[in-house]
Amino acid sequence: AWLKHSASEFTTKEEFEKELVRHIETTLARSLYNCDEHAAYSGTALAFRDRLIIEWNRTQQRQTLSDQKRVYYLSLEFLMGRALDNAMLNVGQKENASEGLKDLGFRVEDVISQEHDAALGNGGLGRLAACFLDSMATLNYPAWGYGLRYRYGIFKQEIVDGYQVEIPDYWLDNNPWEFPRHEITVDIQFYGNVRKYQDANGKTANSWENGEIVQAVAYDVPIPGYGTKTTNNLRLWSSKASTGEFDFQKFNAGDYESAVADQQRAETISAVLYPNDNLERGKELRLKQQYFWCAASLHDIVRRFKKTNRAWNEFPDQIAIQLNDTHPTLAIVELQRILIDLEGLSWDEGWNIVTKTFGYTNHTVLPEALEKWSVPLLQNLLPRHLQIIYDVNLFFLQQVEKKFPNDRELLSRVSIIEESHPQMVRMAYLAIIGSHKVNGVAELHSDLLKSTLFKDFVNIYGPDRFTNVTNGVTPRRWLHQANPALSALIAKKLGGHDFLTDLTLLDKLEAFVDDKEFRAEWSEIKTQNKLRLAKFIQETTGFKVNPKSLFDVQVKRIHEYKRQQLNIFGIIHRYLTIKAMTPEQKKKVVPRVSIIGGKAAPGYWMAKTIIHLVNKVSSVVNQDPDVGDLLKVIFIEDYNVSKAEIICPASDLSEHISTAGTEGSGTSNMKFVMNGGLIIGTCDGANIEITREIGEQNIFLFGNLAEDVEELRHRHLYGDFKVDPQLAKVFEAVKGGMFGDAKDFQALCSSIEEHGDYYLVSDDFNSYITTHEMVDEAFQKQDEWLAKSITSVARMGFFSTDRVINEYADSIWNVEPLVVKD
Ligand code: 26Y
């Protein structure tokens, strides 16, 4: 009789053990007697990988056969974190695996933590892409991700003498989760020239010639859905010297050195993730990365489409492509080039297909993050693409002129080409013009796009091209995986884990808010999670923190708009306040651990100064006997996804305190609340919708509103500006050398005192401090605090990426899930 499943589809502890041992002994050529934790990790990963491969092949076959519309998510960043725990949980075999590992003498947590994070992203945008992949697979959408296979992910951060130092993150050795597809390659052209010629019908056509060729090689990563057989694909491109004849000429001519140099230059394209988050720098290599990845992905997509033998006008019925910010905007131009130059379609036929295919997501209104590429750079690197951009612009401006005659101001405002020196291509405008839908990532953000940045385009196209899709996070990683105890408690109350795939079911928890026993269990889980973090802090920093303290966390990329400086100034204020207290007064203080973590872009000097100050304050405060356990300040080194999984479940309070109107959405706010933490935050990004969902009484909001920011900034520059008196005291302490050389922090203080306080730190300081006092009071009433915590979690159903993906599918992509039958 045939087996119901092959050996690699283990469903019991024994079957898993067999697979594990087989991989350790044969694939890894190790004996069980010298099997260390890392080998146990590799063996386990390989056993799970086999399972994924089987379903992945089946999924790809099923999707090809069904011939329905697919989604391609183009993102330069996929901040995946670790894969093993996720794979175990998504295929539902973590129990069996942990039992099996235990038999061999290993703890599953130790094995899991052997894995190197896949850190192919900077922050929110990259992590959102990773959550989207999880939801698209879980919801059975036929969907692929396309990205770059960087040899070096985001740098590893070390703190040396209080300063950030960047260490390269070489992560590719022994990565069991990727499959090289050496047979899937695309030749990508750069430089060269455009030649005009007469085609067979006597029409003028364009040919891009004499360029340099670099080869793109596909590496595939399986993406398992939770509780479904659907296993989707993430395809990452790696660059390699072309093996074409042309490129061997140098070798043949004996020019060995220069041939090797060419080879290295080719490999440089996918060598490193640019570590800037929300800061555009216009580097040629970055533009090369963008085109390399867009062109490879587009050719792959077109190749797949052509196999179906459909007419070109069916392309948008078969394919939706989502642009994760403007980074892949060249895909728009590349598709138009393929259609008109290579496939012989007319301009209008091509452009009609292009605009129906693409959707564009904007993640930021910060001017310094908006991509612009210089015309001379594009002219040199991608001469044919520049011509197409000019033509897109010409036809667009003609359309605008028709609708709004004689408005030259308008034409120059909306032109894709900015008339500066040198001229610049505004990628966001190109993305809007080349897409059928443009969305922001939270309500306020989408409204701001329509009323400020893209206002003219709303007038030109009407409001329907612009929409909002509020972000979410995947509850599988951010609740079930990061906080197994809480997930289990919820499951016990709700009668199963269905809430993990329908997060709105969490609302049933509200019925238990007053249940004493339930509250105690809830509280105990938080305590255990805090103990786990306290242990981690002691192991990594040497500082002991009291787990009974209020854990106050701000972890995210360091940026002035996110205002870690407001946090650290608030901490200094608290420190000064405690130091001035009598012993009697001190007894009433709620002990606090302030935890800050995040990377600064290597060239972002102000952000690095903030990190430096946090570390200096930490070393002063943590050894001050006047303060003891009343205040501890911890900087978490090298904040990343796997550390976030320990940190999020352990917070009592987290800080989301950007200047109103600056944060697109924020997604860690959602992760923290989902884990029963409360928030102190501004009326910004998704904080506003979180408040609407969980109720004003369950969140600590403070600070000025977005609508008042412009006027305040204006007043700083032209009216009289006085630093908040409590903040002034903080500055006095810093300048007096309390935290080391005052000069080191000069710029931080003067950006507020002398240079207009662009981020409104002073304006919001008093409100921030007062709100923290309210937090202290609330924390003392533990029963009420617990009620807030439980109620908030119960009302977080909206913030699952499952809801988000369904919205994209309905309102932007027009795709249906491909339901799997057993
Ligand atoms: C142009 C280049 C230097 C660049 C590189 C990375 C520009 C921007 C970025 C990253 C942006 C980013 O992470 N944005 C964040 O996206 C999240 C997901 O939508 C939002 O929650 C968050 O508010 C936003 O800052």
UniProtKB/TrEMBL annotation:
Enzyme class: transferase
Annotated PANTHER family: GLYCOGEN PHOSPHORYLASE, GLYCOGEN PHOSPHORYLASE, LIVER FORM
Lineage: Eukaryota, Fungi, Dikarya, Ascomycota, Pezizomycotina
Positions where N6-(pyridoxal phosphate)lysine occurs in the chain: K671
Reactions mediated catalytically: [(1->4)-alpha-D-glucosyl](n) + phosphate = [(1->4)-alpha-D-glucosyl](n-1) + alpha-D-glucose 1-phosphate
Assigned GO CC terms: cytoplasm
GO function term, MF aspect, one: pyridoxal phosphate binding
The name this protein goes by in its record: Alpha-1,4 glucan phosphorylase
EC number assigned by the record: 2.4.1.1
Pfam families: Phosphorylase
UniProtKB keywords: Allosteric enzyme, Carbohydrate metabolism, Glycosyltransferase, Pyridoxal phosphate, Transferase
Species: Penicillium frequentans
Similarity section: Belongs to the glycogen phosphorylase family.
Gene3D superfamilies: Glycogen Phosphorylase B (3.40.50.2000)
InterPro entries linked: Glycg_phsphrylas, Glyco_trans_35
A biological-process GO annotation: glycogen catabolic process
Function: Allosteric enzyme that catalyzes the rate-limiting step in glycogen catabolism, the phosphorolytic cleavage of glycogen to produce glucose-1-phosphate, and plays a central role in maintaining cellular and organismal glucose homeostasis.
Cofactor names: pyridoxal 5'-phosphate
Superkingdom per UniProt: Eukaryota
